Amino acid sequence: MPKSKKSSGENYKEIEDKAKKLETLIKLSNDIRDKERRFPIPFNDFLFLASREPEKIFRNIYQLFHDMVRYYVPEGKDEYEKTAESIGFMDYDCTNLFIRDCPNPFLADRLFANRFMNLIEGFRKGAQTNRIYFFEGPPGSGKSTFLNNLLSKLETYTKMPQGAMYKTLWRLDIEKIGDFQQVAKKISIFNNNNNDNNNNNQEISYGQINDIAYPKRFLDISCPNNDHPILQIPISFRKKFLDELIPDKKFKDRLFNTKEFEWVLKDKPCSICNSIRNTLLDTIGNPLEVFMMVNAKRTEFNRQFGKGVSIFNAGDEIYNRPITNDVIQKWIHELLKNDEINYVYSYLANTNNGVMSLMDIKEHNIERLKDLHGIISDGVHKVNLVEENIKSLFFVIVNPEDKVHYENVKSFQDRIITVNIPYILDYNTEVAIYLNKFGDKISSMFLPRVLPNFAKIIVSTRLEKESATIKKWIDPEKYKKHLDKYQLLLKMDVYTGKIPNYLSEEDVKKFDRGIRKSILGESESEGKRGISGRQSLNVFGTFLSRYGKSDKHITMDMVKEFFIEGNPKLSKEIPEGFLESLENLYDYNVLEEVKEAIYYYNENQISRDIQNYLYCINFEQEEKVICDYTGDTIEIDEDYFKNIEAIFLGSTSTIKERKSFRNDLQHEYIAKTLAQDIRVRKKSITETEQFNSLFQRYIRNLKENALAPYLENDNFRMAIRDFGKNDFHTYDDRLKKDVTFLINNLKKKFKYSQQGAQQISLYVLDKDLAKKY
């Protein structure tokens, strides 16, 4: 008995497991069905959808492609948003389009992202049809990865509800077309499904037709050219029909009056659809009955089968033979009793209203490109004696040496739009590529700023040395301590959308719309030489294997050593003096960080000092006043002014300089601060522009001298070295407090680890950077 119960329990468990597996399979089946629903939609239902969602329904491949990209890429950010200074140099996040769920991510820098998004905006407007799009770049720039990821996301998008695009499906109603008995007999003979010749004259029921010829009462013929269903409405009636169909007046205005939707009103159906429609009209006579046989079906985008999207590699054989289907052709002939409907099309039809791409202009792709010339110009391709209307999106990947195959064909040049895919010119993106390849954890191996500096060295080999725009903008001599001989460091920051903090206020103001636009324009000729993307990864891998095993963080000295001593061949590609200038800029920045970290003056007291000073400059010396703003009592004399003005002007400033500074401030205080900001705008003194300007200047100058008390103090250096050890407790309380404050601020404000904060503090002291700058 016990054995029997155990067996019964095992059987129950087995049944339960099978039920769970079946439930899982049913759920999967439902998910697939919901995601890849392919049922045809009757024309009347389709028109109802069109009236409700015209923006979604009336899309050709250009509009669909635009919507796909905008689905994956959110709105960009502009540092000059809503001002006249904006040039549209946006910060786009292309992660979802080129990186997420991609086996081989493509990381687009800000320059390329803007080129690409500008191209896509043109797609929506319909301004760039009848063009071929060349993505040109040197070997190793990621062109193939870019295109593969882009088209993969297109496939994914078209399987979503948001990405639905529709083509024509004819559902020929055999019963309505008539004479179905003879049709069934002839089809049965053709299919060899009835070998009994004695039954040829026997009456055949509709149910037998169903069994012999068709799965249902319909013969489904899908348009091989992917015609949009609305094209089955004759052109002469189309505008009036749509005017009555669509209630949205704003959309109709765009539909009827913009180039974006010109195709809706002007495009013709393919020869197959046109012939079927005309024959049905002749056979049935009632247009309504004909339109009842029009259905909409989602266009399939499947690169594997060359449907909707197809990529041709250079070695792929050319297939120019017309494509036919004898079975469908026989059905059409027998059912419609018409031999004028030729079910024939070319391989180009599969990607009509889709995307066709050529991967490199070599071998067979040279001939394919030449064949596309006439198709792009006229939008027509000949198949035997039949014309196909081709409105595809044509992409081509091009290496610079491939241009010889088309650059001398003048008529072709008018049809080409070239988008550069150079080597990465944004050092932040170069860093992102390293992290993607070697893992995010490698960033913790470097001191802050060092990894971006490695990337800057790589990027420097890809830039042009001369920039007429930068020379027009700034005086290079003015920034010798911060910039390299060719101002490449400044250009790199501009390419990331950043304005360096070492630039003077005057030069920041001069960085207007025209200068920015001109500098960004120079990028079009850069990134075509230098260390390639693939080389860069190899170089970085070598660097990591050499320096990544240390128990300390990777430093700027290690980077410099690697490029100068570790790889002489590589160092020749780096512009003259660039490494030294990069180190100088690094030294300046880390010095500022350490100054910022050790600075802890009481900002409330600074605020009171400035309020008192602005109040006192309106009185004669040797007076004793009570400040209306703070309530403090102040004895005004030359020493009072000298002490506070030395902070603004420096301790070496003369009496004449200080009095001039004081008089200018008094004039601004009376004319603007007091008369306008306080009395008219009802601002408090601390809300005025004059106060805030002095406050920032006060703090900036105090920070400049923040390290001065410690530079000659050997105990300060040793306390930094011993921080976190038992020996640290042997130092006096004030020194321990200062060092602890410094280390904690470097960690909090600049993302150093404790070890990194100690390393960089000692670096600044040992190199005596405070005297250098």
Structure description:
With 773 residues, the protein is of the alpha/beta class. Among the domains are: 7-36; 427-594, no CATH class; 603-704, no CATH class; 708-772, no CATH class. The chain is 52% helix and 9% strand. The protein contains 36 helices and 15 strands. The strands form five sheets. Strands 6-9-12-2-13 form a five-stranded parallel beta sheet, with helices on both faces. Strands 1-5-3-4 form a four-stranded antiparallel beta sheet. A hairpin with a 6-residue loop joins strand 14 and strand 15 (633-636). Helix 4 (61-72) runs antiparallel to helix 6 (110-125), helix 9 (180-190) packs antiparallel against helix 16 and helix 34 packs across helix 35. The longest helix is centred in the first third of the chain and has 34 residues, at 2-35. The protein is elongated. The protein starts with a helix and ends with a helix. Residues 1-5 and 192-215 have low confidence and may be disordered.
